[in-house]
Amino acid sequence: xxxxxKRSPDYSQYDLQAEKDNLRKFLDENDLWIPESFYNNIxxxxxxxxxxxxxxxxxxxxxxxxxALCSYSEEQxxxxxxxxxxxxxxxxxxxxIKQMTDVALNKDDAVPWNLKDHELVETLHPNKRxxxxxxxxxxxxxKKGTNERVAFASSLKVGLIFEWG
Length: 165
Description:
Elements: E1 2-3, H1 16-29, E2 32-33, H2 36-40, E3 47-52, E4 59-62, H3 64-67, H4 74-79, H5 82-85, E5 86-87, H6 90-106, E6 111-112, E7 118-122, E8 130-143, E9 149-163
């Protein structure tokens, strides 16, 4: 087993404005929008993802932060629902699903996740990389013109703890 010391990630290459601009560009190209409050709460170093609404929960957008650490291919991340790719403890997973569903289907603005820091394990990859997750914000994502709720955006910080080798 390879063990990695917990340490503060290097965010010197993280361009906060560029990350926000990339998200806006993706949303514009797909006729989607999210509340401005989500952009206001993106932190330097955040992983930014957009997923289809439940029950599918497939990733439709991701910045490069998590891709640099994750073992899965971009195709796997887009084609396989997140809960099949990763494992969290049941209590965290249930709280996350409850809040994500509430925000995606009922809220009109971004809200903090308010979930405790926790571990996330790759379940389908042989290396079983384990990450420490610090949840940021979650927001509904709407279709332009109709305001249909079609997805949700999430921000979080992630650090690699260890991987099986």
